[in-house]
Batch of 2 targets.
Target 1
Amino acid sequence: MTTGTRADGPVRYLTIHHDGVTIPVSRAGRGRPMVLCPGLNSTQADLRELTELLRQDHDVVTFDLRGHGVASAADRYSFDAFLGDLRAVMARLDRLDLFAPPVLVGYSLGADLAVHYASEHPDLATELVLIDGANPIPEPFITEADQPTYLRVWEELAMRQRTVQGTDRQVLLTGREILNINIEIDAVRSGILDRFRRIGRPTSMIMSTSMAGDSGGGQAERINRNWQAGFERLVREQPHVATYRVDGDHRLPFTHAPEIAQIIRRALSTADPAGSRRTP
């Protein structure tokens, strides 16, 4: 393990080797342990503002998923492969001498990974905080008819991401790989309520009010309705999950980092497994 310096203490770095990939892990801050899992097309560097805010009163461990940031490329990208990355990080926390099991925070795909991990290992995370992910949407976002359109969008995204290759913000996935992962995520979310039922830990959900933005276009409107319907389904079927709404789109950790950090602090300070904390 190597260390760097920060105003409020050292940053510790650890590299995990598993499944043919290298996963970079960083840790800094003070207070209650926390693990922050990025989402698809997001990196530790992208989440830096939120991470720094959380490290003011939490001992935060974060990392890059395979093919993201300074993690290595992989032969395969799938939901199970990314879940394996999270499992590998959680399995190595003993090397970091955390004084207690961590709060597990996930953004977007990272939220879905957190729910799956916690449903498998309910004693290895004290609480969950899910940011705009793990939503039990009633309909898939990507229909077969939509796939060509989304493929073009994500091929353009992959092309733009080439401009940051070699940096801590790079994403090495192709447009086709991004599409395939999103199709998998749709399938995962169709059954994610069963995973919620297995967790048995205080769980908070921070959800955007307009996941696809408020441009008013037909596709964005359909996505937002589906996202809202999933949120309402979660509230109805899992009333123990504390829910918070933030006026913004799916980029919440980038555009509303101070508000997200404040909500997380409030949620964790008022944790009550038998209660529920909601905002409109």
Target 2
Amino acid sequence: MSRIDLDEFSDLIERPDGAVRREAEARRERLAVTPGSLGRLDELGEWLAAARGTALVRQIERPRVVLFAGDHGVARLDVSGRTAGTAGELVRGVLEGASPVAVLARRLDVPVRVVDLSVDTEPDAFPAEVVRHRVRRGSGRIDVEDALTLDEAEAAFRAGVAVADEEADSGTDLVVLGDLSVGGTTAAAVLIAALCGTDASVVTGRGGLAIDDLAWMRKCAAIRDALRRARPVLGDQLQLLATVGGADLAAMTGFLLQSAVRKLPVVLDGVVSAACALVAQRVAFRAPDWWLAGHLSGEPGQAKALDRMALEPLLDQSVRVGEGVGALLALPLVRSAAALAAELPEVKAGEAGAEETGAEEAEEASDEESARPVE
């Protein structure tokens, strides 16, 4: 059994402030724009108010993209559009500013942090701040062996908790969470199928590079075999991550739970972050109240996980590249909701009455005009 007491998270995680949310809803009724006319932006503004503990929503000033990186041994079965062991290329692309998430982050002026947990490279391949939480080089092939030892899973989980604390302590006010992995969607699908009690075919998608039918069948078989190994350890979430997850997924799970403890809102990206969120929900049922689903990627496992957590995606652009790109695309929407909730003026009671009186007078005048005989 794990030496980490996961039950503590249920005690430590509180829901966003319900009284503040009600106050924000009442304030929304007084704004100059008709309630409901802004659609989900109203709901987002109220969620942000509750999460940040103030009815007058503060702007999101210090968001950050956090990407957990790792290679998965199951990719050696050719279940991914990328060659096994090449997550390091994804990391280098981000660090060099040449990846999709790096381009968008520059445009949106959002810093990006990469955390290497189990990339299959030499440790000195990346800067020290990237590799200082590394647990191992690559994760095991989950269809026939454990991804990690339990000690490694604990180390990765604690690394995720530490990263959440570092972000909260540094003043980050919202995190866009993503992954840089090869084979990660296969491990994520196993976790989702295990926790939702579904078959492999229900959660098997085609990944970021849209694998062909033969690769999809290999992926489905790998998930089926890994599911057999996952079901006996469903009662211990950390053992589950050690058996069929990976160091990056264990770290993301710890990160999500500790972010909820620290009341740090998180925008989830694709199927990998959704799978980790589902594991975290099993640990602490209130934790999902601190997360937003950034987008719908088209991966069936992601849709299944989000439905189980009652999280409705903000966008549906079929972005499958990973890297936190889809979640980052949702950031301007979240910022817009915060700006509208903070800056739209309230209508004073007298002004509202005057507007209603004026409207009534205009209507009466119109009725009188239409009642006159035509000469």
